[in-house]
């Protein structure tokens, strides 16, 4: 089954509404602001592509100067639903993070393999600190332990899309987080 012309038609249920996301992002922005002394630099490192929408809202919810930098990594093959465990850096940081407080901004933590790799990688660049902010956390599928400082929502083991999260590069532009209809990805997980 292929994606519908209207992405809403491929959603089985809305898991987190646009309003709930907005309210939680405001809280996270205030918490991140409060966690660092005034005058200390904060760099939000957005892990593309999934965190694109989240970081755009989160940075505007933090009432102080923040810098952003972008990394792109890939852990899933295109169209797959399983993490391969291999992390490739497709785009590295543009600037230095030395002496700065880094907040890695993710859309979802699944197995934890991506963040395990990224945290070690960024700590090697001599930042002042490295913490993690994720919109979604799926603890049921964790393979490696990851210390997460800020979590938007803990979610069940469902295949979710929207608010930056994709399936086959679609659905990222949905304003909510929804559960994808199973028939869309059943052939990929070997059900049909
Ligand atoms: C997703 C997500 C995380 C990672 C989480 O990225 O954005 O980076 O997978 O999975 P893990 O905890 O099992 O490592 P993906 O590779 O799908 O790329 P995208 O952000 O470009 O959609």
What proportion of the residues is helical, as a percent range?
A: 10-25%
Strand content: 25-35%
What are the distinct ligands in this entry?
1-O-pyrophosphono-5-O-phosphono-alpha-D-ribofuranose
What is the H/E order?
A: EHEHEEEHEEEEH
Low-confidence stretches: none
CATH structural fold name: Rossmann fold
Secondary-structure arrangement, i.e. CATH architecture? 3-Layer(aba) Sandwich
Envelope shape: globular
Overall tally of structural domains: 1
Number of helices: 4
Strand order, sheet with most strands: 4-3-2-5-6-7
Question: How many β-strand stretches?
Answer: 9
* Largest pleated sheet: 6 strands, mixed
Average of the residue pLDDT scores? 93
Q: How are the SSEs ordered, and which strands pair?
A:
Elements lengths: L10 E6 L1 H18 L6 E7 L3 H9 L6 E8 L13 E4 L9 E9 L3 H11 L5 E9 L12 E5 L5 E2 L15 E4 L1 H4 L7
Parallel strand pairs: 2-3, 2-5, 5-6, 6-7
Antiparallel strand pairs: 1-9, 3-4, 8-9
């Amino acid at each position: 089954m292929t994606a519908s012309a209207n992405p809403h038609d491929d959603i089985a249920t809305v898991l987190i509404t646009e309003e709930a996301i907005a309210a939680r992002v405001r809280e996270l922005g205030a918490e991140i602001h409060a966690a660092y002394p005034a005058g200390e630099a904060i760099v939000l490192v957005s892990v593309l592509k999934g965190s694109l929408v989240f970081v755009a809202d989160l940075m505007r919810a933090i009432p102080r100067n923040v810098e952003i930098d972008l990394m792109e990594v890939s852990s899933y093959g295109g169209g797959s639903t399983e993490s391969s465990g291999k992390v490739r850096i497709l785009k590295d940081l543009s600037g230095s993070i030395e002496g700065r407080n880094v907040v890695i901004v993710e859309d979802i933590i699944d197995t934890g393999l991506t963040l395990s790799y990224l945290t070690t990688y960024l700590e090697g660049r001599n930042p002042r600190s490295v913490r993690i902010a994720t919109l979604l956390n799926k603890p049921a599928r964790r393979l490696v332990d990851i210390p997460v400082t800020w979590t938007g929502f803990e979610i069940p083991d469902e295949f979710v899309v929207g608010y930056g999260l994709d399936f086959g590069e679609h659905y990222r532009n949905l304003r909510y987080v929804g559960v994808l209809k199973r028939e869309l990805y059943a052939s990929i997980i070997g059900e049909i």
